[in-house]
Write a structure and sequence with these properties.
Layout: E1 2-3, E2 8-11, E3 20-26, E4 32-35, E5 40-43, E6 48-51, E7 60-68, E8 74-81
Parallel strand pairs: 1-8
Antiparallel strand pairs: 2-6, 3-4, 3-7, 5-6, 7-8
Length: 82
């Protein structure tokens, strides 16, 4: 869980290990946004990925879709509260 206008932080170390190539966000209204590398930061050695707060401006259920180099995509569903 996180709050509106907070940066989203994910521990993705256990999600397979390959390099993250891109990230998509599906907002509560089902709008899908393809983020570019300026919109998130990824520290592979630590397995940490964070997405800028500007994408979490409304409460509801979001889905983060991580695309990996040479591996299956991984989806994480999470809730943003007021």
């Amino acid at each position: 869980m996180m709050r509106v206008n907070d940066e989203a932080k994910f521990d993705i170390q256990g999600l397979g290990g390959p390099e993250v190539t891109s990230v998509d966000i599906v907002k509560p209204n089902k709008e899908r946004l393809a983020l570019n590398s300026k919109d998130y930061s990824y520290l592979k050695g630590l397995g940490m990925l964070s997405i800028k707060a500007q994408y979490f401006t409304e409460a509801g259920e979001y889905t983060a879709i991580f695309h990996f180099d040479g591996a299956n995509d991984t989806e994480i569903v999470f809730t943003v509260e007021e």
